[in-house]
Amino acid sequence: MDRTPDDALDVGAFTAAVEDFNRFCIRIPALEKLPFTTLSVLDTLAFRGPMRLSELTRTEQISQPGITQLVTRLEREGLVERRPDPSDGRAVLVHITEAGREIGRSRHDDRTRHLRPLLARLTPEERRALADALPALARLAELGRGEASPT
Hints:
A two-stranded antiparallel sheet has the order 1-2. Helix 2 packs across helix 5. The chain is globular and about 55 Å long. By secondary structure, the protein is mainly alpha-helical. A hairpin with a 2-residue loop joins strand 1 and strand 2. It is built from 6 helices and 2 strands; from the N terminus they run ααααββαα.
């Protein structure tokens, strides 16, 4: 078993549960049918703000030509726009548009509608355990994004 330093959590089991839930969650039926990479770029821009193409290449783990093609397509579709970087006139920042944000809201609403009846089938203790885990999961996501300072 792969335990954390305080032996309270089997990291391997946690990883398996998160991966299983992610596989389920990303396949929840949605009104907006878009490729995963498109959704990921829109999500990144919605939560992190405007970014340079080189930053998107790193966060999305896509080649420079791949991210350039994707951003060009998203720009044509009105989901993102490029604007000059105020800190460097030679560079551009990719911004999400309101239409791009609406796709994220729509996906969130679709998932909420799908999960609500499933959560209702859990026992009160299971729902309470999930509620109790939310702050730790949010903190773990912050750490993974590098948004929080180390403790």
